Amino acid sequence: VKNHVSIIGAGINGLLTAFYIANYHPELHITIYEADSHPVDNKDNKGTTLGSKDARHVTGSESICFESSVHHEALRNHPNSVNPGWLLKGEKDLSPDELDWRDKFEKLYTHKSEINDLDYAHARLNYRGLEGWHNLANEYPEINKHFLSKDFVEVYFESEDSFLDDLKMEKDFCSKYYPDQSVRQANNPKLKNTYESHLLVPGMSLRVKSLALSLIKILESKPQVDFHWNRIIENTTGMKSNVIIWTIGSTHKQPAQYQEQHIQGIVGCWATIKNPGYTKPFKIASPVPSAYINLTPDAGSLHVSGGFGWLGNCTDRSEVERLSEPVAKHLIDQIQKFLDVKVGLSDIEYCIRPSTPNGLPLMKAENRGDKKHIYISGSSKSGTTHAPILSQFVLDQI
Ligand SMILES: Cc1cc2nc3c(=O)[nH]c(=O)nc-3n(C[C@H](O)[C@H](O)[C@H](O)COP(=O)(O)OP(=O)(O)OC[C@H]3O[C@@H](n4cnc5c(N)ncnc54)[C@H](O)[C@@H]3O)c2cc1C
Q1: What is the CA(370)–ligand 1 centre distance, in A?
Q2: What pLDDT digit, counting tens, does each position of 145-192 carry?
Q3: Its pTM surpasses 0.90
Q4: DSSP category for residue 254
Q5: CA–CA separation, 62 vs 305, rounded Å?
Q6: DSSP state of 281
Q7: Are 311 and 322 in contact (CB under 8 A)?
Q8: Cα–Cα distance between 71 and 49 in angstroms, integer?
């Protein structure tokens, strides 16, 4: 059937893409298939967007690629080892797909010790994403209302050296890709065990789950859009649409066709604790596996996220918890080093980032038989930040 597109996956990427298509091509019929049930009735959504906490940062920070932030051997070392790594499964438990992903992870890098092409690629996409979200917030009040802040995010560092390194890098990225704004520095840190100056980087924070719910509501009100909840798509045989958009991430078992796209899971941890009085979003650059800890105040709550560990293919929820414990424990130690708040292992929830082997997004279109398949996913650390870019990519393809 011409004039009909199908979107598989109702995370931020699937929903924003549907919103773009509905606005720019109102003549197209859109069917959205989602494996989980409607989020209003369901507290057990597994997806990265609908199954985690209601906060994300959108900044040019965290541009540093996997290669520069960890090391080539990261997927061969467990988080507790002397060289902290991201390997969560036992070596002998890795499947052929997982070994293949690791091989790609290790071979895709530039092997340069200074800031490299991959870092610049991440930075460019992050700033384009930031610009995209600003444009959306300016244009649509129903999107704007989910932003908690839109001016800057504070970034704290443990030492003068790491502060100075980051300042140089962030200024370089920002002047290249976001020249109208600048990275600033400020004194008077409010955090213990951090260097006396910190940075203010252009950035935003948003309630991503609330935004996703609003997008669902807006789309449900459009006559040309249909949702099918509880529908796990295993293959597209018999699907009537001539364009199929895959945004399924890595939280469910992937169909064979999708495994070729090499999107696997990298775990992160979340805790929502009582807000002791913070008013602005901030980050703390801490060592891996915790890495940047993101903190987002929302009235009486403070959402805290951080941590990286390679989970590979979709893994059973109880296994995710067991395997990810070293990452969670590291994060808890880091949180307590900087904040006077109590966080225990039982406060931690796990969330899985869909990721390509080098963390840059998958944006691909191909014809298979009489259908066009478009794949968008895998922006590792910046999957929410890049959503406007991925949605625009789809728009350009249809
Ligand atoms: C701890 C943590 C902190 C993060 N912080 C940030 C941040 O500050 N800034 C930022 O930019 N990004 C951040 N991210 C990354 C970002 O949250 C994700 O990249 C993003 O939410 C992914 O959205 P998505 O739509 O691609 O995937 P998902 O939200 O996972 O959506 C995919 C959907 O597809 C459905 N699905 C799967 N298989 C099928 C199937 N076969 N048939 C039908 N439906 C299917 C799933 O149920 C799911 O709802 C963070 C991630 C984590 C884990």
Answers
A1: 29
A2: 999 999 999 999 999 999 999 999 999 999 999 999 999 999 977 899
A3: yes
A4: P
A5: 13
A6: -
A7: no
A8: 28
Q: Does the N-terminal peptide bond of residue 26 adopt cis geometry, omega within 30 degrees of 0?
A: no
What is the distance between the alpha carbons of residues 277 and 297, in angstroms, rounded to a whole number?
8
How far, in Å, from the CA of 212 to the mean position of ligand 1? 11
Distance, CA of 21 to CA of 182 (rounded, Å): 33
Tens-place pLDDT, residues 259-297: 899 999 999 999 999 999 999 999 999 988 999 999 999
Tell me how many helices (H) and strands (E) the chain has: 10, 16
Q: What are 13-72's pLDDT values in tens digits? A: 999 999 999 999 999 999 999 999 999 877 788 899 999 999 999 999 888 888 888 888
Which pair of structure tokens corresponds to residue 306?
Answer: 């951080």
86 token code pair: 């991201």
Angle at 34 between CA 47 and CA 249, to 5 degrees: 40
- 96-101 contacts: CB < 8 A, separation 24 or more? 97/259, 97/264, 97/312, 97/313, 98/264, 98/312, 98/313, 100/262, 101/262, 101/264, 101/312, 101/357
Question: Cα separation of 6 and 242, whole Å?
Answer: 8
Beta carbons within 8 Å of 206's beta carbon, 6+ residues apart? 55, 56, 58, 133, 146, 147, 148, 384
**192 backbone dihedrals φ, ψ, rounded to 5°:** -75, 160
CB-side exposure of 161: number of CA atoms within 13 Å? 0
The atom of ligand 1 lying closest to the CA of 12 is 25
DSSP-derived secondary structure for 177-189: H-TTS--EEE---
Q: Ligand 1: which of 48, 266, 284, 315 to mutate, judged by most atoms within 8 Å of the beta carbon?
A: 48
Query: How does DSSP assign 57-69, residue by residue?
Result: EEES-S-S-HHHH
- Residue 54 CB–ligand 1 contact under 6 Å: no
Angle CA 306–312–315, to nearest 5: 90
Q: Which residues on neighbouring strands pair with residue 374, listed in sequence order? A: 245, 365
Q: How far apart are CA 348 and CA 331, in angstroms?
A: 10
The SS3 of residue 28 is: coil
